[in-house]
Amino acid sequence: MIFNQKEPPIILSVGGSLVVPNGGIDTDFLTKLNKVIREEVIKGKRFFLVIGGGRVMRNYRDAAKTVIGNVSNEDLDWLAIHVTRVNAHLLRTIFQDIATPRIIENYDKKLRNWKEPVVVGAGWKPGWSTDFDAVKLAQDYGAQVIINLSNIDWVYDKDPNKYKDAKPIKRITWDEMQKLVGDKWTPGLNSPFDPIATKLAKKLGLTVIVTNGHDFDNLKKILEGEAFKGTVIMPFQIDASYYDREYYTGKKGGHRFAHAESLPGKLFHYAANFYRALTIKIFLNPKICLEVGCGTGRLVHALRVLGVEAYGVDISQYALEIASPKVKPYMKKGDATNLPYEDNRFDLVVSYDLLQRLERSKIKKAVEETVRVSKKYILHKIYTRENVWIKVFHRFDFSNISFFPKKYWQKVFSSFDNITIVRNQIIRLPSFFETKFLLKKKHADSTD
Question: 371-421 pLDDT, tens per residue?
């Protein structure tokens, strides 16, 4: 079995209630899970499957309380842990030909150079749920996303079993999630995500998707980066205020904006954008150009200084408001997945460090839009895993929610029939420093 060992693993936290819903094992669920995992493994993916205790765990807990009355939290946790280990052995048996021989029961003992594409994990020790175990795996093995398979479609603002007016939540930050689930773990806690796991996931800046484990078509959409149903728990606010993470001066974080407003920061950004503009002018020489995700318009301004009819679009109203009066007339508000321009409008469409900040389900649509409004070239500069210098000199930017290797983006661009990847028509620094993709529309009319 061949899989990409450089790709971060996908962590599936499988609720025990999906496997053992009412005391009996759901073989239909296991059959479908087996099929989906194997299909994705063939495509090169690798998985950590962490299994919970479910209804059986609660049956053991209730039985102990019925017989002897008070039972310590530690004993209740141990009952649950052993149930998760039985469930894990069942999964390990199902995936025995593609799974590591050892089930992870002690998360301090890390796997070294394992070759199998599936790893199964169970409960560890009292005080921590399998949600926490899944977060520990993400911390130890470099995963950025956990898919939490449960028996609910969404996280709700309150218990839907008790309140008819409970509303589903599509997007939520970790700060908001902490308020929702509290800060204390108790054995058998029925919560969309364990409070202790929530604290660590927030610290690590992970993304967690809570979704219904019975909907395997939806799971496939998540795995393939398509639009899906489920609650996304994010380390920062996205959607309407998405781009504001760079410009907001309050608690959302605005460290980049603060640096950009200092004199050294201004000089650095001016020099960087002038270099980008000069490179574009010399090698591509467009008459009319659009920057998607233009921020405060520094590149647009630099291009205009060099004689290019440049325009910018950004989703952040705040960024547009603080832009220089010289460049404001050439900028407008707009979403990368729905650009407010007609087809074939620009000789060149560019984006710098934009695509890796989009949710994976929106990436193809954003690329499609840049291709649509261009009549010749599209240039995307993307922060990828190969750009090691950023890791050395900067702390990790959690807004890079689609932080993938270069090959991932090559695969995305290659999936479009109407463009080709141009290899040698613009200066590219080594991948250690940056990753650029110059695309050319097929059969486009030349404007040179």
Answer: 999 999 999 999 988 888 776 666 666 677 788 889 889 989 999 999 999
Q: Which of 207, 235, 263 is the last residue of a domain?
A: 235
Residue 19 contacts by C-beta under 8 Å, 6 or more apart in sequence? Answer: 25, 26, 29, 30, 51, 54, 87, 90, 91
CA distance 369 to 419: 13
What is the identity of the amino acid at 180? L
With beta carbons less than 8 A apart as the criterion, state whether 268 and 293 touch. no
Instruction: Indicate whether 206 belongs to any domain.
Output: yes
User: Domain check: are 268 and 413 in the same one?
Assistant: yes
Instruction: Tell me: pLDDT of 255 over 60.
Output: no
Question: Distance (Å, rounded) from C-alpha 390 to C-alpha 100?
Answer: 34
Domain that holds residue 346: 255-441
pTM value surpassing 0.85: no
Q: Does position 313 have pLDDT exceeding 50, yes or no? A: yes
Q: Are the beta carbons of 365 and 355 closer than 8 angstroms?
A: no
Locus of tokens 């009066």: 325
The answer to whether the beta carbons of residues 9 and 40 sit under 8 Å apart is no
Query: What's the distance, CA 216 to chain centroid?
Result: 19
| pLDDT tens sequence across 316-343 | 888 888 899 999 999 999 999 999 999 9
Q: What CATH number does residue 312 fall under? A: 3.40.50.150
Say how far apart CA 427 and CA 395 lie, in whole Å: 27
